[in-house]
């Protein structure tokens, strides 16, 4: 009996000091588990997950994303679309009288349940405490505006204390808003970060970023609580994601960076359906490879029908095409596992962006861009539409290299051929066209990397 008591006491003591199971890597470029094992952030945007789905549907959604190889689900506690007054699937709202000092236990119990289900599946949740319209509505928000420095600090502390034993949370301050010039917004968001940090028991127990409309680095790069940068390239097909990644990548102090909200699948491009039509799934996939090869530590996929958990009979936003449950297996979503497969197939933590691999003029058109990344003994070169390109050999190790073509649409590679690792060589992908992107994989022939 005494032994069981001591064991229980020891276990509870560990829980009291539990910390997130993720941290920033020693070289400050990636996320890793506490033991140093690499963690690939492959996210999906499910902003209205807690607000719209019942428990059975939430489990269905999470299981699908786990099966596809997603590692992070991005969701918000206080949802964008009237999340303070429009009740969840069980008729519950977050607060009594929209007062953040009066949390409704029944609402947060539903959040608890989904977080626990995600954890059971091995999924992390990038948890936004609130959407930005609860701080300022801007032109399209619903609000109401309920937060100032004092109230948002208290709310953050409440959440931190509630989830201090939940190891699968990545905390995301902000919510699709840039701090306004001349306002107290920056300090309000800092107050939220402070509240969460104190609630969980210290900065080492919370992994945090900030979700803006542009880049978190603009306001918070040197803040101690900001562990990695996150930016939003938004929903236009022509955004030069590599430029934004490179901007954050060069900043000091060094911090990981990624695109946390790029072009969504089945969203009107630039929000103009009549002029631009719906997003091309090939453009959605391009964002992943172009950002990762430019130096991002991870990537977030999104679908217009899923983020809002659209169903017929419910008001849809930005011209949804079909219900969320019929959108789980769309073309670009089907290819996201292949992104992770490639990135985890070679030594992970020494990977750097390196455009010196591809000499000559490079296009700034995302459909024609050549983007390159490498480790010391391997390299990946992405041809956005299968166009030929040159490679400066001899940058990675080895007298000879094995060269193969990886197909981002199928996750399969063609048989490798051995080539001398000298001079400049021209490579022509197996096929060309808007829907024919390819990755050239170059491996030091003396290494025994697993076949893709």
From TrEMBL:
Putative collagen-binding domain boundaries: 352-443
InterPro entries cross-referenced by the UniProt entry: Apiosidase-like_cat_dom (IPR025277), Collagen-bd_put (IPR024749), GH (IPR017853)
Protein name, as recorded: DUF4038 domain-containing protein
A Pfam family reported for this protein in Swiss-Prot or TrEMBL: Apiosidase
Annotated signal sequence range: 1-18
Keyword terms, alphabetized: Signal
Domain Apiosidase-like catalytic: 25-349
Superkingdom field: Bacteria
């Amino acid at each position: 009996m005494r032994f069981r008591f001591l064991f229980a006491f020891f276990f509870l003591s560990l829980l009291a000091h539990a910390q997130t199971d993720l941290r920033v890597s020693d070289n400050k470029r990636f996320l890793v588990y506490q033991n140093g094992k690499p963690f690939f952030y492959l996210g999906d945007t499910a902003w209205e997950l807690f607000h719209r789905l019942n428990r059975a549907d939430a489990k269905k959604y999470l299981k699908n994303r786990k099966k596809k190889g997603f590692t992070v689900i991005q969701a918000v506690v206080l949802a964008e679309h009237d999340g303070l007054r429009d009740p969840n699937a069980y008729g519950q709202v977050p607060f009594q009288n929209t007062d953040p000092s009066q949390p409704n236990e029944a609402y947060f119990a539903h959040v608890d349940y989904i977080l626990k289900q995600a954890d059971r599946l091995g999924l992390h949740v990038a948890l936004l405490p609130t959407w930005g319209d609860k701080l300022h509505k801007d032109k399209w928000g619903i609000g109401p505006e309920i937060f100032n420095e004092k109230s948002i600090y208290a709310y953050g502390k409440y959440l931190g204390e509630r989830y201090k034993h939940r190891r699968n949370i990545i905390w995301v301050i902000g919510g699709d808003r840039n701090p306004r010039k001349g306002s107290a917004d920056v300090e309000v968001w800092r107050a939220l970060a402070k509240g969460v940090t104190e609630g969980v028991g210290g900065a080492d127990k919370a992994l945090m970023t900030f979700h803006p409309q542009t880049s978190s680095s603009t306001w918070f790069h040197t803040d101690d609580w900001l562990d990695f940068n996150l930016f939003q390239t938004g929903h236009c097909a022509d955004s030069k994601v590599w430029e934004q990644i490179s901007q954050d990548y060069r900043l000091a102090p060094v911090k990981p960076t990624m695109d946390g909200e790029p072009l969504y699948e089945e969203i009107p491009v630039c929000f103009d359906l009549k002029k631009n039509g719906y997003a091309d799934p090939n453009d959605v996939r391009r964002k992943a490879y172009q950002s990762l090869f430019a130096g991002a530590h991870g990537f977030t996929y999104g679908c217009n029908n899923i983020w809002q958990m659209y169903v017929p009979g419910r008001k849809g936003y930005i011209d949804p095409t079909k219900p969320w449950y019929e959108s789980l297996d769309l073309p670009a979503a089907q290819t996201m596992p292949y992104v992770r497969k490639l990135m985890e197939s070679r030594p992970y933590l020494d990977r750097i962006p390196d455009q010196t691999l591809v000499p000559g003029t490079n296009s700034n058109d995302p459909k024609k861009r050549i983007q390159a990344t490498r480790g010391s003994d391997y390299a990946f070169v992405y041809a956005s539409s299968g166009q030929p390109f040159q490679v400066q050999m001899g940058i990675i190790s080895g007298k000879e290299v094995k060269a193969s073509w990886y197909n981002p649409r199928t996750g399969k590679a063609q048989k490798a051929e051995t080539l001398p690792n000298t001079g400049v060589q021209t490579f022509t992908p197996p096929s060309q066209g808007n829907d024919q992107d390819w990755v050239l994989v170059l491996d030091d022939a003396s290494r025994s990397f697993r076949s893709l």
